[in-house]
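Narrative of activities, Objective 1.

The group set out to show that a structural description can be obtained from nothing but a protein's sequence at a throughput compatible with the screening campaign. Below is one input-output pair from the validation batch, recorded exactly as produced.
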Amino acid sequence: MKRKSVAILALMISAIITSNALAETSKLIPVRKTLENLGFESQWEPETKTAIFKNDDFTVSVKNGNGYFEVNGESVTFGDAQYGEDKYNEPVIIDGSFYLPDLELAKAIGAKVIDGTLVYEQNDNKAVTLDLNKQKLSDIEGITNARQLGGYVNTEGRAIKQNVIIRTGAPSNGTENDLKLLSEKYHVSDMVDFRMEFESQRAPEPKVEGAVNHAIPMNIAGNLSQLQASDEFKKEYAQASGEKGKLIMLFAKNGFLPTPKMYEYFLGDEAAEGYRKFFDILLNKQEDKSVLFHCSQGKDRTGMGAALFLYALDFDDDTVMADYLLTNEANKSIIENDVNEVAKYTNDPEILNNSRMMNGVSSELLQSVLDKMKDEYGSVKGYLKTRLSLTDDDFETLKQIYLEPVD
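Output recorded for this entry:
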């Protein structure tokens, strides 16, 4: 099975969207038979009643009772799909097999529907695939989404040095041994905290021996701190206290789970000023030391920081997106727990899908910002030059600090 790049996948999806085929009603097709014909391996998890199909590029999960299916950890919803004279708007079981809509499944895995059959076009492009096991700090136990960017290869054929740049969730949950490892094994000299003030007050930044703490608050959630201070929110929060599903629904109700609209924050002045400070720290990293940057879950503010860092080092779109989406794999068990907790109170597929964003990410979120940066500044690097005032000399300095030849 030849791997498809994100760019090629986008072109194929665009072609499908503009084709006459998409004007037709989706048809329900048997998932197992269809994907096995495309070279996927299948397995069944009886405890969760989930069918899983894998190839080199994609993992497709279909769970009984869910109003969506998942591809590489991202939820895929769909409108009405026809089977015989009936229409369905969720995965269904027919004669003991899961059925999904052909057009939506095809889009999600970069295939096409030709004469009612899913097919791949032959393509020599290779997708960027990242191995979480190579990136995660496996000996760090209490800090979520803890991983390093070492080994990524840029468009010039140079790789990021191992363990010099680390991204995580809040280190406040780290064990005593975690903090010792960050100091003695990973040699962290700078801890960059993108959390808002009320977040860091609730879970203070720990002290890592030999590291300097840098607070760069990014108020991505707008008036969340003010809302939390309101009597109405305090009352609802108290009622939901101890019930995670209700708390997630409360945040979703008040618009504080990530959306493309929320991500517009990253195009504003505060974000530009904050990330400029971040790059100043990156540019002054001590030799043989590392920089650790984080927010609360290590996915949105941290994810954007990682994306900007990678673009500054001339990494391609595929690698940037692959690193961003690796959060879904790193936080897989947490995300599944979030969905299960919310499912105790609702079976609404939209609410269940939104609940994944508490600890997960979606390519749509990051892409919405990157597209606007490219539209306005010609490229993300153009944004870095214009809004963050980074120079070609700065980019070269970053490469000297963080990159090395590939063996």
